[in-house]
Write a structure and sequence with these properties.
The structure is a homodimer. Chain A has about 325 residues and is an alpha/beta fold. Chain A contains eleven helices and 14 strands. In chain A, the strands form three sheets. Chain A has a seven-stranded parallel beta sheet, sandwiched between helices. The first copy, chain A, has a four-stranded mixed beta sheet with strand order 8-9-10-11. In chain A, helix 2 runs parallel beside helix 3. The longest helix of chain A has 21 residues. Chain A is globular, with a radius of gyration of 22 Å. Chain A starts with a strand and ends with a helix. The model of chain A has no long low-confidence stretch (mean pLDDT about 95). Chains A and B meet through helix 1, helix 3, helix 4, strand 13 and helix 10 of A and helix 1, helix 3, helix 4, strand 13 and helix 10 of B.
């Protein structure tokens, strides 16, 4: 019997989950749940209903794992603890500083309801976290480096769009090549914020807006741009639509450490992602962990988990024997 | 109370385990066991005895995890199933094709004795296996690529040394830059053996040996060199000693896959290692998994495991709370 997946949310993540399920043979989509009018939402999977999220609790017997595809700012802090009372759940909560509180809230719900929840699943947090964990375990004497990009930062793009006179904007975070090379070379550099990433902005102005003034406002914006070397390009709406609708992203995690009686031997571990579609990759990770959530639930392992708590064998369709023969 | 580690074997892996324990605060070395005369073996840790491996069974109450540092060809197939009857054990068995049989043998011993064993721990098998598992779980529609090097292949070096007229030899396996670039670029190339790696040999001749004849014998050697582009350098013993005693190694694991309704979005995941000391890195991995073996044993989780069966949180000294706050 296939694992029955429900999706809460019909944005990019919800669409990605739908696609990721199609790559498996052991899972099936049973319903997409939206806060909007369901008749306005169309999906790509035949014979699967789009329903109002108000009906979700009626589906407890029909869904094995609910994938919560909301945003971390306001949706997930409410949704995940709430739905973990009724479903096994997966989310991609990515506000790193608030993970301990979110974990505690979700755990309380899942433990009391005997459900299994896995939070903060994606690539950062998610795959990057796993790399940090494994490599810290292996090289306790070392330094971690995480770089993001090249890719769009939603938060920074939003910040530019809030400036008066801006019609549209995309902000790319770009790792600095020299910094990457130095880390890759085992030089263990101390890097300032400015030395790690640059920020490149593509901005469409409203009529009559002053580009000089807006550029100044962007590059000096506190917490967002003032600590970075920022480039601003003003383009028209047509070019914006043509060249800046990408959902590419990626990044790098390094652990650079040493071993030996005098720490004389250096080791550099590098993990990198180059992604054409940030949401489709994120949801591919989430669906693998949904498989684990079902298995853990069936084993009676309840409560809130993170990627650190899941043995890799739980994530694959293959049997342990196949994995030992072909992947080990 | 610290986890008490015993080491069986006093070669490069045994020495590496001793060093890796020094990087932890939760493990201690209690004894090194050798098949040689213990009085001829000296170690770097004060107040720890070197004992004959004949005495090992007397240490069952004094060792929490025994790290078996033998070779995969003849030592480990005998030692690991034997000692898993008496100890929790870790080995680095790396003959990929024989892992299922080795697993079955070790599992039978560990299950009947209520001990915990983790086999094939290191970087390949080991960390590379983990990368293959995670990335296959995330991108079911994709291709795996593994490259090794630059580093010394012990087997190929041995094969050259067996040629008449050869006094000493080192063979480096080197990944081909163009192949790496193509994979990194998401081109999903079909690569022949020759296109993936080159082999570079440094050979010291015995007096009177014919270099032309020996070079021919090397580059045409079946199963070792005939399918590769091989370069042979003849050098003197002094240069050999000076420049070719390195234990550097490394390699690359890629998963290149696609998502989307028509698989139109490509994703490239890359993991790489650049290691100054192959044995010290291997043993750093083994010690992290020794921590997990002790924890699993304490939880009553007996039998043979591989890296696929171990949740990453098991590998770290940090508490789950610390991990969620600092690594997630």
């Amino acid at each position: 019997m296939k694992t029955r997946i429900g999706i809460l949310g019909d944005g990019n993540l919800g669409k990605g989950i739908e696609l990721a399920i199609r790559e498996t043979s052991d899972m099936e989509l049973v319903g997409v749940f939206t806060r909007r009018d369901p008749s306005t939402v169309s999906i790509q999977t035949e014979n699967v209903p789009v329903c109002s999220s108000n009906e979700l609790l009626d589906w407890q017997d029909k869904i094995d794992v609910l994938i919560i595809c909301g945003g971390s700012a306001t949706d997930l802090p409410v949704q995940t603890p709430e739905y973990a009372k009724y479903f096994n759940v997966i989310d991609s909560f990515d506000t790193h500083a608030k993970i301990p509180q979110h974990f505690a809230n979700v755990n309380a719900s899942a433990v009391s309801a005997n459900k299994t929840a896995i939070i903060s699943v994606g690539w950062d947090p998610g795959m990057f976290s796993l790399m940090r964990a494994y490599t810290n375990a292996i090289l306790p004497n070392g330094k971690d480096y995480t770089f993001w990009g090249k890719g769009v930062s939603q938060g920074h793009s939003d910040a530019i769009r809030r400036i008066e006179g801006v019609a549209n904007a995309k902000q790319y975070t770009i790792p600095v090549d020299e910094a990457l090379a130095s880390v890759r070379n085992g030089e263990n550099p101390e890097l300032t914020t400015r030395q790690k990433h640059t920020r490149e902005c593509f901005v469409v102005l409203k009529e009559g807006a002053d580009p000089k003034k807006i550029e100044e406002e962007i590059v000096t914006m506190q917490n967002y741009f003032d600590e970075y070397d920022t480039t601003v390009h003003f383009i028209d709406a047509e070019e914006f639509a043509k060249n800046h609708s990408t959902m590419q992203h990626g990044g790098f995690v390094f652990r650079s450490g040493s071993t030996g009686i005098n720490h004389e031997n250096n080791h550099v571990i590098e993990f990198s992602l180059k992604l054409d579609s940030n949401p489709e990759f994120t949801t591919s990770v989430m669906i693998a962990f949904a498989r684990a959530a079902k298995r853990l639930y069936d084993m009676g392992s309840y409560g809130c988990k993170t990627v650190f708590d899941i043995a890799p064998a739980m994530l694959l369709e293959q049997s342990p024997e196949e994995m030992r023969s072909h992947l080990l």
